[in-house]
Amino acid sequence: MPSLSCKRMGTGAPLVLVHGYLGGSAMWTGQIARFSPSRDVICPDLAGFGDSAALTAPDSIGAHAHDVLALLDRMSVREFDLLGHSMGGMVAQEMVRLAPGRIRKLVLYGTGPQGAMPGRFETIAQSRSGLLRDGIAATARRIAATWFLHGEQAAAFGLCHALGLQVSLQTALSSLLAWQGWDGRAALKAIQSPMLVIWGSHDRSYDWSQPETLWRSIPGGVSGSRSASRAQCSSGKTAYLRCAAGRFPKGIAGCLRVPLPAMGTYPSWLSRQRHPVSRPKTTSIRLQLAVGSGVDGFDCARIGLSCF
Q: Has residue 1 been placed in a domain?
């Protein structure tokens, strides 16, 4: 079977970054630059996406997870830290289920445990209908615009739109089918890897119920610090991070034990955002942290910030 394409750079403990729907490894350019001085950064293109666009996309999340694990086997990468975004977060959860002893630390960003996402800006059926009606070009443009606070005017819209245009109709439809057929909630209680979960309050695909389900279901779940710079991902714990503008990357770096850049190196547009943080509607007194974001969750993850 043909192997997935991937981008790899750096030396040190392996860090695997898994992209989401209509994405590709090119989205991680900033993270590669940020982490590669101290980590072996591996960014696969899932089958049907990015540089793996010629491969037939599977119609299950489990198959994507098997593909990534097989790629890592061929690269002789046994243990690794893992970060998954959006659909890539589903793949990451499935990888933990299939190979729990291989994942050292887990970061789930802008994702949840259900493929049929409650509260998404449109249902899977609506996405499928729109895709068949409008075609991949128009759909890639429309979907990419939802990832940003400023839509098509966002600086990274062009990159995300271009990646979407590489996707075939078969890949796009198979991905929607994969979401619809995947539910990872039953496997959450078995996760033992230290984990950091990040959710943006402006996230239009994942409402609060998704990260809340992760927090309530995984053993040892704790709220993070009110300051992202102090959020820890200690052994056996699950930390949930409040994403204040210009601060949330510190939580990821802290979790992965990566030296942090000076605040002055953060993108200026990130520092300027001042959107209100919404508190989650939950009665649990254990959750003392408002998991939200000073910026749109998709804005942060899809662009490929250099400060992760």
A: no
- Give the total number of structural domains in the chain: 1
For residue 22, give its domain range.
Answer: 6-303
pTM: 0.78
What's the CATH number where 137 sits?
A: 3.40.50.1820
Structure tokens of 178? 């994969």
Residue 251 lies in a domain: yes
The three-state DSSP-derived secondary structure of the chain is: CCCCCEEEECCCEEEEEECCCCCCHHHHHHHHHHHCCCEEEEEECCCCCHHHCCCCCCCCHHHHHHHHHHHHHHCCCCCEEEEEECHHHHHHHHHHHHCCCCEEEEEEECCCCECCCCCCCCCHHHHHHHHHHHHHHHHHHHHHHCCCCCHHHCCCHHHHHHHHHCCCHHHHHHHHHHHHCCECHHHHHHCCCCEEEECCCCCCCCCCHHHHHHHHHCCCEEECCCCHHHCCCCCCCEEEECECCCCHHHHHHHHHCCCCCCHHHCCHHHHHCCCCCCCCCCCCCCCCCCCCECCCHHHHHHHCCCCC
Q: Is residue 252 a part of any domain in this protein?
A: yes
Residue 308 lies in a domain: no
pLDDT tens per residue, the chain (308 residues)?
678 999 999 999 999 999 999 999 999 988 899 999 999 999 999 999 999 999 999 999 999 999 999 999 999 999 999 999 999 999 999 999 999 999 999 988 888 999 988 878 788 999 899 999 999 999 999 888 888 878 899 888 999 999 999 999 999 999 999 999 999 999 999 998 888 888 777 777 777 788 888 877 877 554 443 333 333 333 445 555 544 333 334 445 555 554 433 323 323 322 233 333 333 322 221 222 222 222 333 333 332 322 22
